[in-house]
Amino acid sequence: MLDFVRKITHGWVAKLILTLVTVPFVLFGIEAYLKNVGNSASVADVSGTAPITVQEYNVALQNLRNELQKQGQKDLAFLDSYGGRRALLDRLLSTRLLAVEARDQKFTVSDAFLRDFIVNLPEFQEGGKFSQTTYDKLLAANQLTPSQFEQKIRGELITQQIRDSFPTMVTASAKSTELALQAEFQQREVTVVEFKAKDYLDQVQVSEDESKAFYEKNKAKFNVPAQVKLEFLTFSATNLIPKVQVTDEEMKRFYTDNADKFQNGEQRHASHILLSFTPGSDDKAKQEVKKKAEQVLAEVKKNPAKFADLAKKYSQDPGSAQKGGDLGSFGRGMMVKPFEEAVFSMKPGQISELVQSDFGYHIIKLMDVSGQGQSFDSLKPQIRAELLFQKALAKFSEDAENFSNMVYEQSGSLKPTADKLGLQTQSTDWISFQDGAKLFKNEKLMSLVFSDEVLKDKRNTEAVEVGQNTLVSARVVDYKPSAPKAFADVKDSIEQYLKLQKAGKLAITKGKASMAKLTAGDQSEKLDWIPNVTIDRKNAQGLTDLTMRNAFAVDTSKLPAYKGVEDAQKGYLIIKVVAVNDQLTDDETAKQAAVKAYRAALAEEYSNAYIASLTAKNKVKVNDKLLMSGNEAQQ
Fold first, then answer.
1. Half-sphere exposure of 494 (CA within 13 A, CB side)
2. Cα–Cα distance for residue pair 227/454, rounded to 1 Å
3. For residue 564, what are the β-bridge partners?
4. N or C: which end of the chain has fewer CB within 10 A?
5. To which H or E segment does residue 563 belong?
6. Considering only the top CATH level, what class is 227-243+384-481?
7. Radius of gyration over every alpha carbon of the chain, rounded to an integer in angstroms
């Protein structure tokens, strides 16, 4: 059993566990609806007993977003579309349908198996063993009780029993497998001729009456989204920089306090003689050591050339005494503070006065200086900029709450807040929800702008953090509801669209006529075929996806074989298959991979058919309103 547990913890169930114990329950996208319906609202439900909550859906959406970003995908806009969101919901529904079926069929996982599974999860291990403390902390961090967590895992393990059964159901005869391999590795020599819609544009005309009729029938497609004119206040740390001052004394103090940062390129080579006292020594004991150190210092000053010999004789530093006190080269931050300050204030060959540290009294000789630190004068502009931002940031922190309170408490105007904090009110031209979301890089602000309280009651929005250390509050100056564009504004684009439609139909008509001649054996018509290319399912040789999808669907029982394909947007395509090569590849690894892929595809088909049967068997309800993103709801 434990071997199976170890195996399954590295599969998809383990990924689910990671989700449960490491992903905080973050809501986004449709939070505007949650104010009315609550966190327990259902995006979908199976048979009225197995809801998929908004919270559950949004965790799955965030996980998918994170995973795609890890894979290097940058354009994730499809995740905010209805189609993208529905695809994710369908995946969740599949799991929920399996869970309902498992419940109804009384599938079970024993307590012993569940315990073994959980204690072997690496997330709960400390020193190679299960840690109850780690288990409790992770569950508490995600607001899960042990019973809730164990219930979730038990449900997923039961569902996995059903999923694991699909591959075992796959039965593929030797003949069907051979045919599948033959289809996978088959090569076809093809050529193509296109009847392009654009080539027929000059042969079609569109009247104004046709354009007007299309406009009237499709007015909704020409709607301009609702727009607003805004005035807004921006309160940010950056904008406060001109209002703060920095003195030379402050800059010098900052330079000194951050010497490690600015002078770490400079190295100092020094030797020392240490007369030490033990930690906790009283003042009398320290005075005795200091008296001895003063005597040694006098001897050193009397004969500086004997420093190394005197270090061997008197120094109580076991690491350097026998080397004549030599400490080697070091940079800032490597020695105790009093020692460092003394060394970095000396000149080569100079011998210090007594320097007291926690170790005792030091007599230091600076041997050499190498490398170079950055001078105060060279760093002055950089230090000034840093201190200005620090002060502006402190000022922002002080006044951010005031800004938020004032725009809320005096919500009839932004002027009192602007006057009090010395800010400048700004304004926009007409902008839509999407325009504003791009301008402010924040959808929450625009959701507030289009709310009844702000849009109709003419109140300020609450202060919204649109960036790091940046708050914005806006109010609506003017509003235009969504309305269709005037016919005159879209006439040209409608005409071009209708012309392309007509040209496409004409191209299809011409293409079909040519196709009819070819299938009748009449090859007298001169067509502009491309040079023959040999393709397989993985090598398109420059052919389009449309061509590739249809090239292998051509019936090749008689050659040459033809297939006509309509493309309403572009015209008509005739594919001609000249020759077929059914010889399998000699690459055994490729063959085995193809067989594996074939069996996996069959298992996927079984799985899809089973899910379809469960969907038909159960009542599945989807709340499309909740599934829509916030910006779609505005449009």
1. 23
2. 14
3. 574
4. N
5. strand 561-567
6. alpha beta
7. 39
Domain range 264-373, its CATH number among 3.30.565.10, 3.10.50.40, 2.40.160.20, 1.10.10.10 = 3.10.50.40
551-556 long-range contacts, CB within 8 A, separation 24+: 551/188, 551/190, 551/575, 551/577, 552/183, 552/186, 552/188, 554/188, 556/188, 556/580
Phi/psi of residue 386, nearest 5 degrees: -65, -40
Identity of the amino acid at 625: K
List residues bridging with 271 in a β-sheet: 326, 365
Q: Which residues contact 608 (CB under 8 A, 6 or more apart)?
A: none
Q: How many C-beta atoms lie closer than 10 Å to residue 475's C-beta?
A: 22
Supply the pLDDT for residue 630: 40
**Confidence (pLDDT) at 259:** 67
The pLDDT, as a whole number, for residue 430 is 95
| DSSP code, position 557 | S
Its sign, for the CA torsion 184, 189, 193, 198, is: positive
What is the number of H-type helices and E-type strands within the chain?
Answer: 26, 20
Phi/psi for 163 (5° steps) reads: -60, -40
C-alpha distances out from residue 532 to 422, 524, 543, Å: 74, 19, 11
Topology match between the domains 227-243+384-481 and 264-373 = yes
Residue by residue, DSSP assigns 416-480 as: HHHHHHT---EE--SEEHHHHHHHHT-HHHHHHHTSHHHHTT-PPPPPEEEETTEEEEEEEEEEE
Q: Look at domain 2-170+616-634 and name its CATH class.
A: mainly alpha
Sign of the CA dihedral with 148 first, then 151, 157, and 158 last: negative
Three-state DSSP class for residue 270: strand
Q: Which residue has the tokens 């970095």?
A: 344
Domain ranges of the chain: 2-170+616-634, 187-223+487-581, 227-243+384-481, 264-373
Encoding tokens for residue 300? 């050193």
Q: Answer for the pair 180, 606: CB distance below 8 angstroms, yes or no.
A: no
CB atoms within 10 A of CB 494: 21
511-515 contacts: CB < 8 A, separation 24 or more? 511/195, 511/564, 511/566, 511/571, 511/572, 511/573, 511/574, 512/564, 512/572, 514/193, 514/195, 514/574, 515/562, 515/564, 515/572, 515/574
Half-sphere exposure of 206 (CA within 13 A, CB side): 20
pLDDT along the chain (635 residues), means of 10: 37 42 32 37 80 82 82 76 83 83 80 86 85 83 79 80 70 72 83 94 94 92 92 91 87 76 72 88 89 94 93 91 90 83 90 92 91 68 84 88 93 94 93 92 92 91 91 95 91 94 94 94 92 91 91 92 88 94 76 73 77 84 70 38
